[in-house]
Amino acid sequence: MGKRIPALTRVEPSRPLIRALQAQIDLLAASITGRDSYRIAAAWVYMSALAAWAEDHGLIPGRLRAPARPARDRFLKQGGTEAGWLALAVADLAVHPAGWPFLDPTYGNLVREDSPSESAARGLLDWWRDDAPTLAYPTSTGPATWEGFLAGELLQLLTDERRLAHALAQSPWWVADGILDRTLIPAAREFRDTTLLLIDPTCGTGHMLVRAVGMVWELYTTGELQPRQMHMHGVTGWTPVPPAVAARRILDGVDGAELDPITAAVARLRVTVTIAHLLHGAGALPGPLRLADIPHSVQPRIVVGDSLLAGKVDRAEYARLRPAQAAIVNLGTTAGGVLAEGVTR
Questions:
Q1: Which of 27, 268, 289, 321 lies 20 to 30 A from 190 at CA?
Q2: Range from 78-87, 114-123, 162-171 carrying the lowest mean pLDDT
Q3: Measured between alpha carbons, how far is 201 from 209 in angstroms, rounded to an integer?
Q4: Cα 217-252-345 angle, rounded to 5 deg
């Protein structure tokens, strides 16, 4: 058993949590052979953190926390392995189309490349069970933990490699709110009682999109929108619509694009959960809220692609320049895949 991490009290990851997860990466990497051992280990540890976030919010079955120990013991007695149990935690995220990319070979999730040893997998599982803090906790300011800001932040903080390779530098929630105040509120004044169109062309793990969803939900369902950060007047006078109509407008109007496939997949999962949570809170989606029970129609358009090439090259040239991205059939779109010809509507 390692050192127990203090309970978290804010959305941003704590340094003890980051250090503890990085230590787990080191342990897993030592058990994996090959030149990509550290990157593969980092993928396993990050996916376990994403699964822990989903588990702590009741979205997926228990695999990592203490209540799951009896089920894990039965799995092992029946011939299962510790690494197999860890893999099931990742697979639990794929019960909804928003999570399918985590198992899709074209998305390049490195957990598909190799697995940690039994002892390393056991150590990671035991750490989540005994020492890791819950990722679901009350927050006094800023986003609630179900919006996944902590889970999104960890992707850029666990390894320098991913952050530097993909220029992953995500806007803090208060910066996102300020930008949205200055853009959504003026748009809402000009285009009343319609579907507002918004795209984040470099959306990362979805920080801006998640906050935008909350703001347009407020506008659509209440008929008004007040600023969250800026000293400015809000907008009123919209005709409120039912929750299901508001969700449909959000899915029709809030889009994202991201070059790195796994980063885009995290954004898609977070936005899906955010919309479902808002529907559930409004009584339009029964509870308890489970990822498997969220309608497949609740799936945002967050495509994998290079937004700098959008509309500037044809399909053949795009495939030459970005072969990994061109191979992906983007979920939630009608034409399936080439951002170079635009996000489809």
A1: 268
A2: 162-171
A3: 10
A4: 160
Q: How far apart are CA 15 and CA 52, in angstroms?
A: 18
DSSP string covering 227-291, please? -SSSSS--B-------HHHHHHHHHHHEEEEESSHHHHHHHHHHHHHHHHHHHHHTTSS-SS--G
Q: pTM for the complete prediction?
A: 0.93
How would you class 21 by CB atoms within 10 Å of its CB: exposed for 0-12, middle for 13-18, buried for 19 or more?
A: buried
User: One-letter amino acid identity for 242?
Assistant: P
Residue 225's DSSP bridge partners are: 235
Per-residue pLDDT tens over the stretch 23-68? 999 999 999 999 999 999 999 999 999 999 999 999 999 999 999 9
Gap between the Cα atoms of 256 and 201, Å rounded: 6
Label residues 270-288 b or e (16+ Cβ within 10 Å = b).
Answer: bbbbbbbbbbbeeeebeee
Going by their DSSP bridges, the two strands 198-200 and 301-304 should be labelled as unpaired
| Per-residue pLDDT at 165 | 67
- Per the model's pLDDT, the better-predicted residue between 65 and 287 turns out to be 65
Assigned token pair, 239: 């005709």
> For the chain, give me the number of helices (H) and strands (E)?
13, 3
Six-digit token pair at 281? 């809170």
pLDDT tops 80 at residue 294: yes
Q: What is the pLDDT of residues 249-262, one digit of tens each?
A: 999 999 999 999 99
Q: 209 by DSSP, 3-state: which?
A: helix
CA–CA distance, 202 with 306 (Å, rounded to integer): 8
pLDDT per position as a tens digit, 201-233: 999 999 999 999 999 999 999 999 999 999 999
Place of tokens 């995290």: 266
DSSP 273-339: HHHHHHHHHTTSS-SS--GGGS-TT---EEEES-GGGTTTS-HHHHHHH-HHHHT---TT-SS-S-G
Residue 237 contacts residue 223 (beta carbons within 8 Å): yes
Q: Which two tokens stand for residue 169?
A: 């530098």
Q: d(Cα 159, Cα 166) in Å, to the nearest integer?
A: 12
